[in-house]
Amino acid sequence: MSTPVSARPATALNTPDLTNGEAPALEVKGLVKDFHSGGLFSRASVRALGGVDLTIRRGEIVALVGESGSGKSTLARCIARLEKPTAGRILLNGTDVLKRDRFQASREYRSQLQMVFQDPFGSLNPVHRIEHFLTRSLTLHGKAGTPAQLRTRLDGLMTTVGLTPDMLNSYPHELSGGQRQRVAIARALAVEPEVILADEPTSMLDVSVRIGILNLMRQLRDKQGISMLYITHDLASARYLADRIAVMFAGELVEEGESLDLLANPAHPYTRLLVSAVPDPARTGSYDPRERAALRAAVMESSSCAFDGDPEQRCSAAEPVRHRVGDPANEHWVRCHLYRPPASAASHALSAEPRTENKASA
Ligand code: ADP
Ligand code: MG
Questions:
Q1: Which of 8, 81, 201, 329 makes the best surface tag, with the fewest CB within 10 Å?
Q2: Measuring CA to CA, which residue among 120, 35, 133 is closest to residue 86?
């Protein structure tokens, strides 16, 4: 095991070479979210996020992957300020938004950051026509203009998301799932956001229309420079869409890196488990069903980490440090005591994080 080179807390390192001098579009530092559990008078809580650090540069698409219940939606909802984080910071263009808008997200924040949800039907009130949703969004953010300008903007939004302007007169139930999700995206676009958080935007859609939504998201990034957090449990779509992938396990990011590099060289047992579920014609022979079952048993059959509570493993006593994996250009790191860096990489530990708090609740 290599010796960590610095003892800075994780929030201070936050991959400093990511920003190229300009503030990233979105930065999350040490985000913690505890949910109250138990009865009315109980003080019990569940830790859904255990101190998450995440950076999204301008015009970058970062995928957040992890199995159901790992905390992905909680992170997005905290960033969108639909949930109140227990601790941590959220910076948009370098501005600390929890300090600026202490109690709720301001209109300014909503015009900078929008969220697209999994269920496009649930997010569109069935009694209104499509025109209503888009007009409302434009009006709320002062972007409606004159009636003629409004008409042009409505038509433009529909065209941008690949729908025809005549569909403005439709009701949500008259559209397909894919078309409804396009409307939800158009509604988010109406405010001209810099960042979009898309929480499993394709998981309720037919397989045949998913690719269209992913292509639309990519187009929005390419043409409008919108930064995105793309949440999914589907690594294949993450590879297709995202520049970088962050892997969440039990409320903590355990590995992150440039998409292709992370998928080609997964370093954390949990990432390997996720990767093993992705059909890949180029990977012949590896991950037969038995190997996958063993991997799953090792990683999943535990409340937190398979190695938690094992006195032989250092995870039980202290948080694992971050280790850089491979070429620094790939910005690939892993946090796991089981990771053994190559002997030549003694200086590759990125932080020694002196957090020894209760791991079981993470
Ligand atoms: P994911 O989106 O990755 O499936 P979630 O963020 O929805 O995961 O959930 C993470 C954990 O937080 C789960 O254990 C879930 O039960 C818990 N959780 C989420 N929302 C709430 C809530 N409102 N109250 C209590 N626990 C919650
Ligand atoms: Mg979710």
A1: 329
A2: 35
